[in-house]
Amino acid sequence: MSVDLDQTPRSLLVCDRSSFLDEKNRISSQVEQLHFNYKVSVLLPECSSAPSHLDSVLNSFSSFYLIRKLPIYELLDKHFLETAVYQGSVYGLSYRTRIDEDNCVALMPNGRLCLSLDKDSFQVLGVEGKSSRFNHRTNSRYVVSVDLTDSSMAPGGRGYMRLLTGLRSRLHLKSDFLLSHHPGGGASLQPLLSRYDWSEHRPEISTHAMTHLSCPTLLTSDLQSRDTHSFLEWLGAVDGDISCVNSSSSFLSSFVCPEPKTTLSRALRVSICGLLLPQDVHRLIQEIRSYLEQPRLESWVSLTVHGFADSPVSWGGREHGVLRGGENFYTLLMFHDHTYHLHLATGAHDSCPP
Amino acid sequence: MSVFMDLNLSYTADRDALQSLIESAAHLGFSTVAINYVFEPTAKKKQEIPTPTPISELIDQLPIVQGRSRPIRVLNRLTIVMSDSSHFRPNAAEYRSFDLLALQPTTEKLFHAACMLYDVDIICISVTEKLPFFFKRAPVNGAVDRGLVFEVSYSAAIRDSTMRRYTIANAISLMESCKGKSVILSSAAEKALEIRGPYDVTNLGLLFGLSDGDAKEAVSSTCRSVLLHAVSVLRDQEDGQWDHLHHEELQ
Questions:
Q1: Closest C-alpha to B101, from B58, B170, B57, B52
Q2: What are A122-156's pLDDT values in tens digits?
Q3: How many CA atoms lie within 13 A of A24 on its CB side?
Q4: Does the beta carbon of A208 lie under 8 angstroms from any beta carbon of chain B?
Q5: Nearest Cα to Cα of residue B170 among B204, B133, B145, B136
Q6: Mutate which of A94, A101, A311 to test chain B, going by most B C-beta atoms within 10 A?
Q7: Is residue B241 scored above 70 in pLDDT?
Q8: Are residues A103 and A129 in contact, defined by beta-carbon separation less than 8 angstroms?
Q9: How far is CA B110 from CA A56, B113, B139, B173, in A?
Q10: Which residues, other chains included, contact B183 with Cβ-Cβ below 8 Å and sequence gap of 6+?
Q11: Which residue from A279, B124, B143, B240 has the fewest beta carbons nearer than 10 Å?
């Protein structure tokens, strides 16, 4: 009587290596496709305080709004569609809802509204949808995805009225909602916000300076695949303030810095949290590229962008779920010669990153 | 998937301990818990089935579940440890005040009767001693068809290393008979330190021989189907709590 413990929950890691100067690099589409970004953390080696340009870019990240108990049918409001959804892009995500426990809602910038519902809610709503790809044994989760910019969903149309009556009278779906708009900022969202209890938030920035950090030596050539896992683990340990000393007397952490390694006399860790737009992440990447152009002691910078663990969608609107952890993030390791290593990672219930 | 539930928190008379138990369950992410009153009738003297204390007397303000915006739901459950067939009286009036009914049979004959005949929701697997009988496929399949579930509790494994061996061995032998379906994992915690978070319990399920998906269901959807089974068996619920079950989950 023994149990097979060899199988661990799977995770996906896609590694891409290219240069910013190469025309065929896909970095901008890969950055843009992760619509909902929760946290960006940057590790600057041999740096003790944030350079002013970097600081100003971080401070210029767009604000976002939190509406409490928004009834979801309001996202189909004709005026809201005309002023916000059809012009520019709206990023919206239900807040404090768990993807494996509750009903979750996402409004993507291309006008797609995605509802991830449990079986009862889906049957009560009565709108066409598909069963989730990550169902186990029985169908317990369903995904309803509609394109609000499509002609069939124009206000007054059949599909539109069916969804609207479903959300308004059959399934009273209500949740806290995070909302952001590009490029307009809050102006086009005001009519919707003013009807409910809302608050504006600035993304939270925190910086942490470290001394005597042991770090793997990074050369532009050759980071083998097994080294990638240990490098990402080390990077995560640095970000989470976890000791990599692995002394025999401590049982808390057995993470180690991968060999070959050096010691940095100083390093700076900057992170920013909130509902972050991919356009702001793109600007940050360009700013770091110009930072790297000047000669430095250490010629690399790493940037990690985390998606929301409880979002119903990850890259490109593909379905996202949580089995054990809902990680969907990418790490961009940039070098001074404009080359980069990109690692995109997801957990078990997710499709392959682009 | 449905919300995470822990359907076995031991009842203690100490109100503060019970309150901290419920608070730590909410903090860990459980949306529904059940206070378990254990009734162990002995041949010696006649004992009365305990009546559950109303939840409003146990705790003033139900804590909000971490990461969600809803307070934790607390139910009442009765577990009868049976060593003789007279210990369980079908359709007894005292059972009506409990939301869930569970049996812990100690002999093979009683296990067979519990699986095939008795009107209960949960059958508890003993984790503190070597299994007194083997699980046969026939009663296990019969129980699964009727909508019953088998429960494995893990806090004995936290308290003592010998119990840990019994828990794992008994759980693995159950999984071999039932193939991982209709199983729930719960804590049977007496103190706040003995309860573990839902994802940790899912990992523990792997040690018991459940697959990834089955182990997660054992803490969520299977528990939900037990609650729905308890409602469907007409057992007059006077406080009408069950009308709220569907409405809350829909929102």
A1: B52
A2: 999 999 999 999 888 888 899 999 999 988 888 88
A3: 3
A4: no
A5: B133
A6: A101
A7: no
A8: no
A9: 73, 5, 11, 18
A10: B149, B150, B151, B152, B174, B175, B210, B214, B218, B222
A11: B240
pTM of the model: 0.87
ipTM comes to: 0.83
Residue A118 burial (C-beta neighbours within 10 Å; 0-12, 13-18, 19+): buried
Name the helix (H) or strand (E) containing B75: strand B73-82
Which residues 6+ apart lie within 8 Å of A96 measured at CB?
A175, A176, B67, B68, B69
Choose among B216, B194, B154: nearest CA to B21. B194
Whether chain A has a CB inside 8 Å of the CB on B172: the answer is yes
Nearest-by-CA chain B residue for A324 = B199
Residues of A in Cβ contact (< 8 Å) with B3: 101-102
Per-residue pLDDT band for B43 (boundaries 50, 70, 90) equals low
Residue A137 sits at the chain B interface (C-beta within 8 Å): yes
Sequence letter at residue B110: L
Q: Computed over its alpha carbons, how large is the radius of gyration of chain A?
A: 22
Residue count of chain A, please give it. 354
Count of residues making up chain B: 251
Per CB-CB distance under 8 Å, the chain A contacts of B206 are 3, 5
Contact A1 B217 (CB under 8 A): no
Compute chain B's Rg from CA coordinates: 17
Q: Do A140 and B209 touch (CB under 8 A)?
A: no
Strand B73-82 versus strand B100-105 pairing type: parallel
Task: Look up residue A81 and give its amino acid.
Answer: L
Please, which pLDDT band fits residue A1 given cuts at 50, 70 and 90? low
- Determine what percent of chain A falls in helix, strand and coil, rounding each to the nearest 5: 25, 35, 40
Beta bridge partners of A276: A37
SS3 B65: coil
Phi-psi region of B43 (alpha: psi -120 to 50; beta: other; left: phi over 0): alpha
What residues contact A113, with CB distance under 8 A and at least 6 apart? A75, A76, A105, A106, A107, A145, A146, A148
Q: A-B interface: how many C-beta pairs under 8 angstroms?
A: 69
Q: Does B216 touch chain A (CB under 8 A)?
A: yes
Which residues of chain A does B71 touch, with a Cβ-Cβ cutoff of 8 Å? none
Contact assessment for residue B185 and residue B201, using Cβ atoms and an 8 Å cutoff: yes
Taking an 8 Å cut-off on Cβ atoms, the answer to whether A171 and B250 are in contact is yes
